[in-house]
Amino acid sequence: MEKSVFEVVTVHKVTDTAAPGVYDLDLTLKFNGVEERFEHYVSTPDDSIGANPAIRMWIKQHPHFPVQSYVPPTTEQIRASLPLLTTRQFRLGLVKNGFTPAQVAAAIETMQEGPEKEVAKIEWEYATTFNRTHPMIGAIAAALGLSGDQIDAMWSTSADL
Question: Which strands sit side by side in the sheet containing 67-68, from one edge to the other?
Fold first, then answer.
């Protein structure tokens, strides 16, 4: 089997990450001397597979290339990146954290009469997935006395159910 040869053609952007020595790059690579393609690549110091050795050599040869500072994601970005939960995962997560589906339904019933309450009822009864950033999640959490951080923790553990 022929060994793949990667060549760094152009580096467009290098961004530091939270992990020491790990970089997030936008670059153009040549593969076996023929194909050029734009790639988004995360390069780690000890990875000796694929394009990484060529990328690490390029980094070593260009020590003055500007590296953009790492900017940690905001709470909103982290929440937006949380996976959708199935109805099963969502409801089991509530139960495992001491809340019953009846408590959620009761919280919805305490909402002011109007379209928002009706939408919340429909979402609770018929949604097949739940999104962490959906406004109903925040409203129900507040009604149950839960903070955003508590919901985030529950969401993360529910994703594995």
Answer: 35-43, 23-31, 6-16, 67-68
